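agent> fetching stored inputs for the glycine docking request
agent> found them:
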Amino acid sequence: MYSMTVRTASATYPVVVGARVLEEIPQRLAAEGLQGAVWLIADAALTTAAADVERHVRAGGYRISTLLVPSGEASKSAQQLQELYDWLIGGGVERRDIVLALGGGVIGDLAGYAAATTLRGLTIVQLPSTLLAMVDAAIGGKTAINHRLGKNLIGAFHQPRVVLADTTLLATLPARELRAGWAEVIKHGVIRDGGLFSALNELADARHWQAGGPTAAWDAADPQLTEQLTALIARAAAVKTEVVSLDEFEQGERITLNYGHTIGHAIEQAAGYQLLHGECVAIGMDAAARIAEQLGLCSADLVRRQRDLLGAYGLSVQLPPELISGGLAELIQRDKKVLQGRIRWVLPTAIGSVTVRSDVPHDVVQQVLATLELGSAQE
Ligand code: GLY
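agent> prediction call returned; pasting tokens
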């Protein structure tokens, strides 16, 4: 089990990563001095895990009610949020009560926003079930629902009181989703932790896994491998923990987490969400590194090493030909991180280090996008 601490001006809280950490929920709540009733908001695909959480919480002497929310991005809606409010307020929620969010980024964002806004703020404990949420979304207090004009446009910063990432839940993830999550782990290596990048490489070299990466690996059949992967996940979560501690409200350092996301988000939209977020981030990371190379900020070797590592974890850096539609440049311009009309590009300078630039010439971006849209990113 790995434990780390987020320290911001508004909150200090533990992030715990490891097998079966959900069993500790009541002890963790008690350690935080939390004594109210528990309101569990869980992804409807996680009925077994939700029942386990209920059992542990009741065994610890807490009252618990559960609401299952349909899986998928469509649940980050005003309508679903209203259902949460009806359930919480109709059920008599009190200020001292505790909301538990069990699921991936969608549930964390939705339940987090409901907690941020009900009775002017309820305690939220994040219980991430996906790799992406364990290393990124569940840590740092961003909560949101979508608006018809864009993703995450209505939200608030509301730091959790505890984050418990139970890695045994990764066994419930479809292989493709687990694979997509590795993109964010690799991203954290590139932006801030060269040692994590090397450790990811060493494991891939030692294991010689087939293209597809360590996706089928999350089962009890190979405890040594799951232990090694857990250590890498904890190290990636530590990067997020550090970044949020430095910059809670995204005034500076936190933007570096957006590496690969400027082009990644545009691809996500252009592909009509047929590609997973992490798959798009992998393509976006490769494109951003190629932009950095063109600007003389990084070497061709960095681009190759990043591409090789993404490949080793089963992630392609090419757009599937059927999804190539053009129009990425326009979509990029609409990115939330655009400041006064200028895109803030997060670009690698070395493995483990990035810089933020708002002066990237349009033609350099166009050139890299053109290779993507022509399907020749790897040439
Ligand atoms: N997922 C990026 C952030 O939390 O800032």
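agent> quick read of the result: The CA atoms of residues 115 and 121 lie 6 Å apart.
agent> awaiting further instructions
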